[in-house]
Amino acid sequence: MPSSTPRSGTDPTGGWRRFREEHAWQIREFFFTLHLLRRNPSAVAGFVIICSMVFLALAAPWVAPYDPIRISLSERLSPPSWHHLFGTDELGRDLFSRVLYGARISLRIGLLVVGIAGGLGTILGAVAGYVGGKTDDVIMRCLDIVLSFPSLVLAMALAAALGPSLRNAILAVAFVMIPKFARLVRGEALAVRERPFIAAAKVSGASHTWIVFHHVIPNCLSSVIVLGTLVVGETILIASSLSFIGLGAQPPTPEWGAMISVGRKFLMDQWWYATFPGLFILVTVIGFNIFGDALRDVLDPRIRR
Amino acid sequence: MDEGVVIRAEGLRKYFPAGASGLWGRRKAFLRAVDGVSFHVREGETLGLVGESGCGKSTVGMLLLGLHRPDAGRVLYRGEDILALEGEAKRRMRRNIQVVFQDPQSSLDPRMLVKKAVGFPLEVNGLARGAEVTRRVEAMLAEVGLRPEHMYRYPHEFSGGQRQRINIARALITGPRFVVFDEPTSALDVSVQAQILNLVKDLQKRRGYSYLFISHDLSVIRHVSHRVAVMYLGRIVETAPRGDLFQTPRHPYTRALMAAVPKPDPARRQPLALLPGDVPSPVHIPPGCRFHPRCPEVMDVCRETEPAPVEVGPDHVVACHLWHGTGFDARRRSA
Amino acid sequence: MNGDLLHIQDLSVRFFTYQGVVRALEGVHLAVRRGEILGLVGETGCGKSVLARSILRLIADPPGRIMGGRILFKGRDMLTLPMKEMRRIRGNDISMIFQEPMTSLNPVFTVGNQMEEVVRLHQKVSRKAARRICVEMLEQVRMPDPESVLRKYPHELSGGMRQRVMIAMELSCRPDLLIADEPTTALDVTVQAQVLHILNELTRARGTSVLFITHDLGVVAHLCDRVAVMYAGKIVETAPVDALFRSPGHPYTRGLLAAVPSVDEDREVLASIPGVVPGLIDPPAGCRFHPRCPAARKECEHLEPAGVEVGKDHWVFCHAGRGKVKGER
Ligand SMILES: Nc1ncnc2c1ncn2[C@@H]1O[C@H](COP(=O)(O)OP(=O)(O)OP(=O)(O)O)[C@@H](O)[C@H]1O
Ligand SMILES: Nc1ncnc2c1ncn2[C@@H]1O[C@H](COP(=O)(O)OP(=O)(O)OP(=O)(O)O)[C@@H](O)[C@H]1O
Ligand code: SF4
Ligand SMILES: [Mg+2]
Ligand SMILES: [Mg+2]
Question: What residues of chain B lie within 8 A of the CB of A213, using their CB?
C-alpha cells in the first residue's frame, strides 16, 4: 500500500525540518507580517489587549479569587476594595471574578460566531462570485435582505423568535454576520475567477467544486481573517446587547451584557456594578477593532511590497 | 483527408456583446473577435498564429480549449467534434488539449505549492494518487529542467522562466497530444525566452506533441513554427509553410508586418514599413477586405467584396484580391 | 568630452527594503552626447528605469537613495542642484516618456486640456493660440484628425496614439535631452514602426539628444547611434551601434545577440545564456556576469573588471574583453 507521505521519515526532528523547508515561504511571510505589525502602534496595542483578554479568559479559574456564582448575601453591593477589586453585586458575588469568567463567555461567543458565519459566508460568497449569473443573483439578493436590517435589530428579532438562550443568541448573531463575509468573499472571488490559473485549472479538468475549494477560497483567506477579527469585536457587542435585554445568556451566567442589565438598576448608587463589565466590553471591542484594522493594512499587498 | 490531422477548426466564430449602439441602444453592437477562422494542425507539427494585439489570437486558443463556446463552427480532434461531447467523454477529451498562457506569474496560484500546481491534473482526472503523483511530478519537473526540491516551493520563489517551466510541466503532465501556447515568452527576457523556446521545441521532438503557437513576434514564430497563419481583425489572411511565408509573403498585410520589424543588424538598416492609421476596432470592421483602409495595394474591388481564400502554392493560402483571377496573373504579380 | 550633454559618473543607487539592500545601480558611467540617440539595453530588472529616474531625481526616498556619483548636465551636477532649479530643468531641458503613457496622462481631463496646460506653462499665450499650437504639435507627430483627438479622453485613444500625444507634449518644450523609457514596448510592430519613425524624425531635425531605453535589440540597431548594454546594475559595454552588432565585446552582449530569434534566417537551436539573471540584493562578487559566463576566469570571481577600449569608442568591462575581441578580428 503506498503511503501518502513517502518522504516524511520517522525521525520527528526530520519531520519538523521538512515542514520548515516546505513552508519556508509561509514562515518567512509570517515573520514579515509580525515585523510590520510590530512597527504599527495600534496593532501592538490591539494585540496586547487581545492577548490579555485571552489570557484572563483562559486563566480565569486560577486568577479569579472567588467562584463567580457563589452567593454571599452578607457582602451584597459592597464597593471596590482589596477583597473585592470590582466590588460585589446584589447577591454578594465577586464582580472581579464574574468579569473574568465573562471574558471566557464573550470570547467563546466571538469565536463561535466567526467560525460559523465565516465558514458559511465564505462558502456562499465564493460560490456566488465564482459561479456568477443566476446563482450569484439568488444568493446575493437573499443576503441583501439580511443586510438591509440593522444587525442588532435582526439579531434581536431572531433571538426572540428562537427563544432566549445563549445558544440561540449565538445562532442569531452568526446568521446576521453571514452576509458580511459572503459579500467580501464574493468580491474577491469575482476577481480570482478571472485570473489565468483558473482557466488553466479548468483546462486541466478540475471541477468547479475543486476550483472553489483549492483556488478561490485560499486566495480570499487573508481578507476573511481580517474581517473575522473585526467581527469578533462586533459580535461581542451584539451578544452583550442581546443578554442586556434578556435574550442571550441567562442568570446566573456571568455574561457582561447580562451583568450590565442588572447593574443598570443600581447605577445611581452602586456605579461599579455596571461600569466594570461595560469597561471590559469597550476595551475588548476596541482591541479587536484596532488590531483588525492594522492587520488589514499590513496584509495589503500594495503596502507589503 | 484528415489523416494525420490532430486539430481541425472549421468556420470558428466568436462575437462578444459590445454594449448597445444607436439611439436608445436598440441596435446591439458586437465585437467580432473571431470571425470565421479555419485551420488545421497536423501530428507533430507546430502551427504558428501571428497577428497584432486584439486580432483574436487568444480567443481562437480559448475556443479550442473549450474556455469559450463558439457562436458558429466546429473543432475536431482527430475527426471527433469535441463541442458535441458531454460529461465524462468531454473531460477525457480535454486532457488531450492543454494550454500554457502568456503570463507565467498569474497562471500559477500564488498560494499553491509547485507540487500541487503541477500534480493536481493527475488527481482531478483520477490518473494517479499519493506517492504516484509525487513520482510523476518529479519526473515531469526533470523533463522541463527543474529539480525535485522545487516541488516544495511557491511560485513567487521562482524566476519568470522557471515559472513558465512549471506551467509547461502542468500542461504536459496528463500526456496531452496538442498544446496551445498563448504567447508563452512575451513576458520573458530574451536570454530566458531562448531557453523556453528551445525547451518547447525539444519536447516536441522527443514526444511528438502538436502545437498551436500564438505570438505577435514574427521572429519567435519563425523560430518555432512549421506552418504559419497570419491573422488580422478576426480572420486568417494567409497560411503557409514557414519557409514560403517568410521568403515569399503574398498578402500585403503579411508583407507590411515583416517590413515593420526592426532587424537587429545595423548594416541592413532600412526604413520600416509604415502602414497608415491604426488597426480598426473589431466592433466596426470595414466592409469588403478588412485590411483595405490601410492596404498599400488597395483596388476598387477590395472596398466591396470580401476576398475568398485562394491557394497560391502548395499549402499556401491567401485571402486577398491581388491573388484572385488566373493562376498566370498571380504568378506574374509575384515575379 | 566636450560633446557630452549629460555625463553620469560613478553613480550608485540603492533601495533599502525589508528583504535587504537592493544594489540597483553600482558605479555606472555613461555619457550622452549632443544630438545623438543613445540606446540603453538590458534585461528586466537590470536597472534601466532606475538610471533614467535618477537623472531626473525621481527616485522615491525612502526606499531608494542615490549613494554617490555625479550626474553632470551641461556641466552642472544635478545631484546637488536645489529642488527648484531641478524642477525647472525637468520641464524645460530634460523630458521623459514612459512605457505606459496612461500613467502620465490624467484620465479625467481631455487630451486637449492637458496639452494646452503644458503649452501655457511655457508660453504666455491665449487659450485659442494654445489650441492652435496643440494642433500643430499633433500634426508633427502625424496624428490623423488632431482636432478630434484634442476633444478625447486618454482612454479613448489607442496605445500608439497615446504614445504619440506624449511625444508631442514632451517635445513641445524643445528639451535638450529626451529620456524615453521603453516607449514602444507595449505597442504592436506596425504601430511601433510609426512611433519610431516620428521619434527619429523629430529629434534628428531638432538635434535633441535621446536616451532610448529598450530591451529590443532590433529597435536599437534601427534607431540608435551608440549603445550601452546593462547587466545587473552595471554597464558592461558601450559602443557605436555598428561595432556592437558586428563585433560584440562582452560575453553577455554576445550571448544576448545569439539568443534572439531572427526573422531573416532559420536557426535550429537558439544559443541561450545558462542560468538566470541574479537578484540585486546579493549580486555575485567580481564581474556580476561570471556565474553565467562561458569565458569566465579566476579573476572574474572577485575582481571587478575595468573598462577596456577594444575599438574606437568601444568600451568593454570584462577581464577577457581585450584578448577575445582582438583575436576574433
Ligand atoms: N471575454 C471577452 N469579452 C469581451 N471582449 C473580449 C473578451 N475576450 C476578448 N475580447 C475582445 O476580443 C478581441 C480579441 O481579443 P484576443 O484576446 O483574442 O486578442 P489577441 O489577438 O490575443 O490580442 P493580444 O495580442 O493582445 O493578446 C479584443 O478586441 C478583445 O477586447
Ligand atoms: N521602489 C523600489 N523599491 C525596491 N526596489 C526597487 C524599487 N524600484 C526598483 N527596484 C529594484 O531595482 C532594480 C532595477 O529596476 P528597474 O525598474 O530599473 O529595472 P528595468 O531595467 O527598468 O527593468 P524593466 O525592463 O522591467 O523595466 C530591480 O531589481 C528592482 O527590483
Ligand atoms: S484584398 Fe485588396 S485591400 Fe485587401 S489586402 Fe488584398 S489588396 Fe489589400
Ligand atoms: Mg492574447
Ligand atoms: Mg523599466
Answer: none
Looking at the domain B5-96+176-334, which fold is it?
Rossmann fold (3.40.50)
pLDDT at position B174 is 92
What is the total residue count of chain B?
A: 335
Distance C181 CA to ligand 5 centre (A): 7
CA of B264 to the centre of ligand 3 (A): 29
Judged by DSSP in three states, B303 sits in helix
- Let me know: does C226 contact C307? Beta carbons within 8 Å: no
B and C: number of Cβ contacts within 8 A: 136
- Ligand 5 (ion): residues with CB under 5 Å are C 49
Identify the CATH number of the domain in which residue A95 sits.
1.10.3720.10
Cα distance between residue A182 and residue A172, in whole Å = 16
Residue C264 pLDDT: 77
Alpha carbon of residue C25 to chain centroid = 14
Overall domain count for chain A: 1
Q: Would residue A22 count as lying in a domain?
A: no
Instruction: Report the pLDDT value the prediction gives residue A174, as an integer from 0 to 100.
Output: 93
CB of B157 less than 8 A from some CB of C: no
How far does the CA of residue B21 sit from the closest CA of chain C (Å)? Answer: 16
Contacts of B205 (CB under 8 A, 6+ apart): none
Report the atom number in ligand 3 closest to the C-alpha of B321.
Answer: 1
Q: Which of B124, B129, B136, B156 to mutate to test the interface with A (most CBs of A within 10 A)?
A: B124
What is the pLDDT at residue B20? 59
Nearest chain B Cα distance for residue A174, angstroms: 28
pLDDT higher than 80, residue B65:
yes
Q: What would the pLDDT profile of A31-44 be if each residue is shown by its tens digit?
A: 877 887 888 888 88
Work out the mean pLDDT of chain B and round it to a whole number. 88
**A29 near B CB under 8 A:** no
Q: For C45-71, what is the mean pLDDT?
A: 88
Bigger pLDDT: A18 vs B209: B209
E strand intervals along chain C: 4-17, 20-33, 37-41, 64-73, 76-77, 94-97, 177-181, 209-214, 226-231, 234-240, 307-311, 314-317
Helix, strand or coil for residue B49?
strand
Task: Give the minimum alpha-carbon distance from B208 to chain C in angstroms, rounded to a whole number.
Answer: 17
Domain ranges of chain C: 4-93+175-325, 100-174
Global ipTM: 0.86
Q: A6 in a domain, yes or no? A: no
A1 or A30: whose pLDDT is higher? A30
- Domain with A104 in it: 39-304
**Which residues have any ligand 3 atom within 6 Å of their CB?**
B 251-252, 289, 291-292, 295, 297-299, 302, 307, 320-322
Distance CA A92, CA B50 (A): 86
pTM of the predicted protein model: 0.84
**What is C4-93+175-325's CATH number, 3.40.50.300, 3.90.1590.10, 3.90.850.10, 3.30.70.3280?**
3.40.50.300
**Gap from CA of C45 to ligand 5 centroid (Å):** 7
What is the tens place of the pLDDT at every residue in C142-151?
787 888 888 8
Q: Which three cell numbers stand for residue C287?
A: 564581474
Residue with CA at minimum distance from ligand 1 atom 2:
B16
CB contact under 8 A, C221 and B216: no
HSE-up (13 A, CA, CB side) for residue B53: 14
Check whether A146 has a pLDDT greater than 80: yes
Q: Is the pLDDT of residue B278 over 70?
A: yes
Q: Spell out which residues of chain C touch residue B266, defining contact as CB-CB under 8 Å.
A: 221-222, 241-242, 245
